[in-house]
Design goal:
single chain; five-stranded antiparallel β-sheet; three-stranded antiparallel β-sheet; globular
Length: about 130
Amino acid sequence: MSEEKNTMKHKLTCHCGSVEIELTLPDGLENLRRCDCSMCRRRRAIVASVTLDNLKIVKGEKILSLYQFNTMTAKHYFCSVCGIYTHHQRRSNPEQYGFNVACVEGINPFELENIPVMDGIHHPSDR
């Protein structure tokens, strides 16, 4: 991992290791949240965001499965081998990916505290 602020690279993997993603997190984990929409409520993931250019699929792009629902705007990606949600292109900000913090190497999501819950049931794009 590089120590320069603008090149902080982190490795994100699914459970089986078939999917590997490189994240550039110049300011660390940003916009940590949970969501109470029907999808997020079931997967219970803590999510953070990066701009589209700060997420690079290194391995397993063809193994990723795409799932869309409701407005079909957000693009949720899962490993088709182990089923782990890795990331999604956000509905409320399509210029960003949300990623599963629990998949980032070296991060224990149970050590993160005071994670706000986003109101996904009443999504801002539905207003």
